[in-house]
Amino acid sequence: MPDRPPVLTKRTLDKDLDRLTHVEDASKYVSRKLIAPGIGVVFLGLAMLFAGVYVFDRPGAVLVIAAAALAAYMALNIGANDVTNNVGAAVGARAMTMGQALVIAAIFEVLGATIAGGEVVKTISSSIIDAVQVPAGLLAWIMMAALMAAALWINLATWMNAPVSTTHSIVGAVIGAGIGAVGPGPVNWRVMIEITSSWVTSPLIGGIIAAGMLFLVKTFIIYREDKIAAATRWVPVLIALMVGSFTAYMILQLETPGSFSSLRILLLGMAVGFIAWIIARPLVRRRARGLENRNSSLRVLFQLPLIGSAALLSFAHGANDVSNAVGPLSAIVRVLMGHQLGEATAPPLWVMLIGAFGMSVGLLLFGPRLIRLVGEQITKLNPMRAYCVALSTATTVIVASWLGLPVSTTHIAVGSVFGVGFFREWYTRHSKRRVEYIRRKAEVWTVEEPADPNTHEVRRRYLVRRSHFMTIIAAWVITVPASAALAAMIYWVMFALFV
Fold this sequence. Notes:
Blueprint: H1 13-55, H2 61-92, H3 98-116, H4 118-127, H5 136-159, H6 166-182, H7 189-222, H8 227-254, H9 262-288, H10 295-336, H11 349-366, H12 368-377, H13 383-403, H14 409-430, H15 432-441, H16 456-460, H17 467-498
């Protein structure tokens, strides 16, 4: 058989086509990465147009429009960084899907910011820096520098997966820009002490409430002979507690000052909670039919209250953290529109809407990765534990928002998670009820000698990751001075260029 003639041409077409295919795949991957930032830039442009509609014919309109863009940028970062506080526990416990969590959080963030966020905005915009002691021309630039510094710091921290507080960032930035502009004199140190003390106490309170609720759940539901009957009795009570507390909070936010006494508000909250209990009882009973007497069945019964508590927490987060984005913008608008400097007027609705929708857009674009991070890494969560975390965090944030204190939602939520985890560790080792329950259930009971708590094996079995303590403390300590220093430098640059 004759030999085939040699091929004198190089067969490069297929290789070239493969290279082109790889380039196309790479470009598609890069394009997907750029979609979210591109939508964010479009939102900034829309925020500027939205602000321009209201102020285009006023003095200082250009400055207000620029401040609106910075506020929208800050709101996007808040939505990206703080979304885990709202629904991370519910997603980590697999009580809702990622899509459901994003939609619920986005809706209730907007509602909380627009309905109940005005009080904390007043604190950020007028109480940290005494506006009377600051010239009108400088106050607007101070708030501009604070917005830019806080937004840049949060963006950097989010990119580095650092758990910083958006509230710490904006408060530190306002202080730093104020000191950089006129020195420490205008800083209201009394208000700062109140805010700082709330940063320390609120995570502790959140952790204690969450641990107490988990204790009640374990005592009255989990370690009972008939778990389903116990859950049928107590889950409606937990739903009533959630609905009643939320009702009382809404009355406090929407009432005319002095129209309701504290006793009347309490009674109204109890009345609505009682109605919720009546409605929840048949629903929970119907859901409990056919469930086995196992802990896994309890997750089904806790799914509905957990979703409700996540929605409540999103509302509370929107009410409290919208101030971090639009508080400085509100101060700029107030000064440039000719209002009295020391007057803590309610922010305009369009200002609140920029912050509210900015947080929701940031959450939808950049939230899923951080939801998975917090929902799974600190301690293992199931629907019962996650419900305790969510309701405890929401209650603490609601009370702080009612008092006008811009607390850190991040640290309250993390404090609640740590409270649940540390309580589980204590309860596992010291609960006689748990020991008796396991003794009755176990076919073979063996008694082990207590292990040395200092051994590596015992430390490895801890239910809470100790390393997160140092991370949180470091973020807590660094954020305020870092944002303050950055704000002071940005103010000096702005002053040199524009003033």
